[in-house]
Design brief:
By secondary structure, the protein is mainly α. It is about 75% helix and about 0% strand.
Amino acid sequence: MDLKTILPAIGYVGIFAIVFAESGLLIGFFLPGDSLLFTAGFLASQGIFNIELLAFLCFVAAVLGDSAGYEIGHKFGRKLFHKKDSVFFHKENLEKAEQFYEKHGKKTIILARFIPIIRTFAPIIAGIGNMKYSTFISYNVFGGFFWAVGISCAGYFLGSMIPGVDKYLLPIIVLIVGVSIAPGFYHVLKDKKQREAILLFIRNKLAFTKKA
């Protein structure tokens, strides 16, 4: 996905919509949140966007998106766990977010901001669990600020300070995505059964390749 080309085309409205959807709508888990924010910030350093307006809109979208997710969870509750899987919904993602929430408690609303997929479903789980809304919104605002404003400003300042940084934009985005998904991999690999299942899958793939 060439975000350097796509983001100027969709503009502020498109960026707002993507950040909003990924922050709490069930269909938003596949969207490129971290890389989008960083690239948008970088493009702001090149004069394509205004960084103050961009950071503000991303922050508002992140907070409103999480609040929408909370309302979805609060309204539909445990019924969501009985919803059939589809292209845009996998019950497994909801279960992973619940496990993460059970482990980290209220901090999940902040920590999940930096973990793809979990960040989409965490506010929904908070709504299902009837977290007090005044508590939820304080964590939501805090996490939304550090994620949306922090990453977009990081892209802006890096683009402003390092000459020719656009040559290294793709590797930097890959690094950001790698760092953001690392906690998820760590969480999976900690589970012995999941670790053994992954190793078995790799062995089977290697065996199939050798036979071919």
